[in-house]
Amino acid sequence: MKILVVDDERDVEALFRQKFRKEIRNEGLELLFAFSGKEALEILEKNNPPQVASVFSDINMPGMSGLEMLDIIKDRFPQLRVNMISAYGDADNYRKAMRSGARGFYTKPVDFESLRREIGEILRS
Amino acid sequence: MILINLISLSLLYYLKKSSGAQEFPERLHRYFKYGMIAAGVLIALGISNAPPEILFELLSFVLVGAVIYLMLNTPELVYLKTLAITPLPIVGVKLLEYLVRTISPAIFEIVENYLDAAGVFAFIWAVTMWLNHRKQMKEIEIERIITKEQERQLRQTEEQKSQLELLVAERTSEILSQKEELQHALDHLRATQEQLIQQEKLASLGQLTAGIAHEIKNPLNFVNNFSELSADFLHEISEEMPKIPDSPEKENILDLLENIKSNLAKIRHHGSRADSIVRSMLMHSRGGTGTMDPTDLNALIREYSNLAFHGMRANPNPINVDIQLSLDENLPKIKLNSEDFSRVILNLVKNAFDAMREKLSAKNPEYKAKVEIRTRDLGDKVLIEVEDNGPGVPDQIRDKLLMPFFTTKKGTEGTGLGLSITHDIIKSHEGTLEIKSEEGKFTCFSILLPKSTE
């Protein structure tokens, strides 16, 4: 079960890998990382339909923003579940993300417990 | 002889008449009156030719002499000198005639022609002197009129001068008061300008703050997340450790792990401190979001002062405080952003607690910490006051109190943003915040909110 995490901060990879160490070791979770919207889209387009179960993406990134990427993903792969993560807990980004069809919205600092529940759900489905 | 008396009479009559303008003393008037009566009597006696003629004639000369003497020797009459000497030759000739006739009628007949001629000359002299006198009188009159006119003009000028002076004084005081007003306005303008500059600075500082806060928030999240993760891993490690047989090395490792654990706890603690500062900064620079709804201000104050109290009791260094609420129960609902405004109450009450804690630690057994929160309906405005009996605010820092990052709290206790945020929230409600304080006695924060911010 593959999950793609999109964030321009490279340390996010280490953080997620360590946070979900048990899930990766024991429950067959596979984490993929992209450090820009463009890179994420490239990964997704390798296979159609993509072999990724869900995407977790930051909103505030240089180049393509998370919200732009969300629109493109929803256009090409309407079935794919996308969750947005934003540093700003503002209502505006939340509304935009939800209108574009995001499944969930997390604010930084990320509450890893709720993220773990979400990923657990994806793993079991 | 009638001529001499007529001269006396006309002289006296003239004198009496001219007294109108000159105001002679009463004494002179009396003389004039009696003299005129005497002249009248002598004329009557002269016409009737009643004896003894010689005596009456002598009396006539005495009278005219007295009148002329009076005119020449009275200071008030000295200006009539010409008039006084006018009849003098006539009187002299007549007197001579009288004397000669009385003493020796024989000689009189011889000199009669000469005396007649002298009489003609005396008459001519008299006419000349009379004309001279008239001329003099006219000159004096003109002079008098000129003097009078000059006096009148002088008086007028004086009057105008004093009026002008009055006007000038009036204008001067007007100008002075205007100057004062202007100075006042200028001072006000300068103060406003300074405030504007300050606000401009604060606004740019606010933007900068928001930028910094966002930039710091991400790395800070990593610090917090990784330290949390490492703590979790250490927990796992300490679960695994009992499976390894005891040895001095293990002892050392366990010891080091303990150190790392406490270090991580410190990183976590300071990380969350930084996080709360960043959060405050973001809150501070955040634009007005949220809605203004009619709110029961008293209920909000009860709830949040209570919350502040319990929050303080649950934290390190709790203090005993008497919280008194004197709330105006007739207060109508006020349009508020209740989420924001609750922070105002929380901040002010917490601030009061911190201030009083400082005073309590000075170990004065008499001191009892007390916070009083009041609300009052002022018609178009609502007054909210939070007063503590803490150490007060020194004058020199009172205006710095509302500036961001200004704090009097020691070390790591304050972010210096509480009151600044409070002030911003009140301003966004179109209200004002005023600080009254007396050192060692009290500090009172007064908020004035307009009743309807439509």
UniProtKB/TrEMBL annotation, chain A:
Pfam families: Response_reg. InterPro entries: Bact_response_regulator, CheY-like_superfamily, Sig_transdc_resp-reg_receiver. Keywords: Phosphoprotein. Residues 2-123 form the Response regulatory domain. The keyword Phosphoprotein applies. The modification 4-aspartylphosphate is found at D58. SMART domains: REC (SM00448). PANTHER family: RESPONSE REGULATORY DOMAIN-CONTAINING PROTEIN, STRESS RESPONSE REGULATOR PROTEIN 1. This is Response regulator.
Automatic annotation (TrEMBL), chain B:
Residues 211-453 form the Histidine kinase domain. It catalyses: ATP + protein L-histidine = ADP + protein N-phospho-L-histidine. Its EC number is 2.7.13.3. Transmembrane segments: none annotated. It comes from the Bacteria. Keywords: Coiled coil, Phosphoprotein. It is an enzyme of class 2 (transferase). Residues 140-199 form a coiled coil. This is histidine kinase. It comes from Algoriphagus aestuariicola.
